[in-house]
Amino acid sequence: MASWETLLAFATLTLVVAYFPGPALLYTAAQTIAHGRKAGFMAMLGIHLGCYLHVFAAAFGLSAVFTHVPELYVAVKLAGAAYLIWLGIGMIRAKLAAGEVNVAPAKTVRRALIDSFLVEVLNPKVALFFIALLPQFVDPAGSLPVWAQFLILGTIVNIAFSSADLLTVLGASFVVRTMKRTQGGFAVGRWLGGALMIGLGVKLATDKG
Fold first, then answer.
1. Exposure string over 52-76, b if 16+ CB within 10 A, otherwise e
2. What is the chain's mean pLDDT, rounded?
3. Where are the alpha helices (DSSP H) in 36-138?
4. Res 107 pLDDT > 80
5. Closest CA to 115 of 141, 89, 95
6. Average pLDDT of 164-185?
7. pLDDT tens for each residue of 136-148
8. Per-position b or e across 10-34, b if 16+ CB within 10 A of its CB
9. d(Cα 2, Cα 158) in Å, to the nearest integer?
């Protein structure tokens, strides 16, 4: 592995990136506001699991495909953006009883896990982030194989990101609890969560690079 000084720099950079407001934090907040804390936790777990696919891809060089085949990058990016927008529209159109924002049905909670996993997998920028960041802190002459160093560093990054997502879910669930358990209060949650989803989808689709 790299030196302790390098690892300290890596840890510092990881925490800064993890806690800087970004799409993952906004996504988990949207799920929590629209469907409650359990759905927020499942969204966090889905993102965490999906992120491991990008870690493995970086470890075994698969993420480099996006660099060499830009058309594939654009296709995956647009697919992910369209999926986010579709989720946002569905969230706004949801017809649940007042108060169910705090106690989401089991189907909604499971769906949050699946949707979040797919959203993370369909975000090529995550793949490029790992393939750009991790090699800077890998020591080819180290005692561990390069792929093992990739996995260790990627896991550290993923755990840091998940800790930020956890705090986001807890914060958003506090906001949800302060909402009045009325149809109007629930509608605000649905519209706010859906708007965040649609906004993230549009941003992902229109971002350059």
1. ebbbbbbbeeebeebeeeeeebeeb
2. 78
3. 37-59, 64-68, 70-93, 106-121, 124-133
4. no
5. 89
6. 75
7. 787 777 778 888 8
8. beeebeeebeeeebbbbbbbbbbbb
9. 19
pLDDT above 70 for 181 = no
Locate 180 and state its tokens: 């009045």
Q: At what angle do helices 37-59 and 124-133 cross, to 10 degrees?
A: 50
How far is 134 from 15, CA to CA, in rounded Å? 14
Size of the chain in residues: 209
pTM here is 0.73
State percent of the chain over pLDDT 90: 14
Per-residue DSSP letter, 142: S
* Long-range contacts of 124-128, Cβ-Cβ distance < 8 Å, separation of 24 or more: 124/66, 124/73, 124/76, 124/77, 124/80, 125/77, 125/204, 125/207, 126/51, 126/54, 127/54, 127/57, 127/58, 127/63, 127/66, 128/63, 128/66, 128/67, 128/73
Helix axes 37-59, 106-121, angle to 10 degrees: 30
**Residue with tokens 């480099």, as numbered in its chain:** 64
Q: The tokens 């109007």 sit on which residue? A: 184
